[in-house]
Write a structure and sequence with these properties.
With about 350 residues, the chain is an all-alpha fold. It is built from 14 helices and no strands. The chain is flat and about 85 Å long.
């Protein structure tokens, strides 16, 4: 009977004996194993993985650049040689440029300086970092303005079309966006020059520079920015219109409408935030297209960016300079893609 006075304990209910209780030998271990990983740790691991994958992709791309330049006819010694140089002079130039060594060895040597910002020396003996220090900020300015114009106009058009599904405005915006996104940047640039520079003489067709190498006036930025932005406006307008249409089918949107919330509140506080991950991904994709198209647009408008530098580097078969342009451009694109990933994770509540 004495045993009946001892209250019965269940495993895990706080008793002092038994292997299943929290004070048993397995209790603390089980508690540690079931402890969830903090959100910041998951985000840090995901961010590290993204950076590692994109760094590896950039390294592969740079290796392809070195290999592609090697496949071009001629070499940097021939391309940069002066008239009348002898064969011995060319051989000495090849030795100084390291062209007598295998491509993998030259690429590995160039890559070792990349983490410290050392982009090597060009075929003409100038530091690549110095050669890019002036034109690359101009290209970033051009691409940044084009991205801003793309964001504002495409969001406005996409929201306007999505708010009137099936209407004439919706069909007009969708059809125009499809036609515009098929136009290459150089076609848009030539059309803009024809209309705004030759026919109306409203804007300059050629970019003049100040003493520091930047555009002399803001008017000289208008046509290059529009030439870059117009095709991307078409692309992003279609993406935003489709994202908003998909989000409008979500149950919480229907609930907000049935609750009698004002139309603008439903749109701004429920519909648009839900489509934000897709919008961010589309704009991040446009960043690479803008920087790639800038090479052509800068040539047409004589804009002082990396377009002319890259064209000269290809003519000189200058592997370090070409790889330097690709590297700095790749870093910018990687940063924008990373920002888009963070926006998507924030908009989805950390589930992605």
């Amino acid at each position: 009977m004495a045993g009946s006075l001892i209250p019965a304990t269940r495993p895990g209910s706080g008793g002092s004996s038994g292997s299943g209780g929290p004070d048993g030998p397995d209790g603390p271990v089980e508690g540690v194993r079931s402890r969830p990983v903090p959100a910041w740790a998951r985000a840090a691991l995901r961010l590290t993985g993204l950076l590692a994958r994109r760094a590896l992709l950039l390294a592969v791309l740079l290796a392809c650049v070195f290999a592609a330049v090697e496949l071009l006819p001629g070499d940097a010694a021939n391309a940069t040689s002066e008239r009348g140089e002898s064969a011995a002079d060319l051989a000495e130039r090849r030795r100084l440029l390291g062209l007598d060594r295998p491509v993998p060895e030259r690429f590995a040597e160039w890559m070792t300086g990349l983490p410290t910002g050392d982009l090597g020396t060009s075929a003409r003996g100038e530091p690549v970092a110095e050669l890019l220090s002036r034109p690359f900020p101009n290209t970033l300015l051009l691409g940044g303005l084009a991205l801003l114009v793309t964001l504002v106009v495409s969001v406005a058009l996409g929201c306007w079309a999505a708010s009137r599904p099936g209407s004439l405005a919706d069909r007009a915006v969708s059809g125009s966006a499809t036609g515009i996104l098929a136009l290459p940047e150089f076609v848009v640039a030539v059309a803009l020059v024809l209309v705004f520079a030759l026919w109306t003489d409203w804007l300059p067709a050629v970019t003049l520079t100040d003493a520091d190498g930047s555009p002399a006036s803001w008017e000289m930025l208008v046509l290059p920015v529009l030439a870059l932005a117009i095709p991307q406006i078409g692309w992003n307008t279609r993406i935003i219109r489709a994202a908003l249409a998909d989000e409008a089918k979500a149950p919480h949107i229907e609930t907000a409408v049935l609750d009698g919330l004002p139309r603008h509140r439903v749109f701004l506080h429920h519909l648009l935030p839900g489509a934000l991950p897709t919008i961010a991904a589309g704009l991040a994709t446009s960043t690479g297209m803008l920087l790639g198209g800038a090479v052509v647009v800068e040539t047409i408008f004589n804009y002082p960016g990396i377009g002319s530098v890259l064209a000269g580097a290809v003519a000189d078969r200058d592997s370090p300079l070409i790889a330097g342009v690709v590297a700095v451009t790749g870093v910018v694109i990687t940063g924008v893609l990373l920002l888009a990933d963070l926006v998507r994770a924030w908009a989805s509540g950390g589930r992605t």
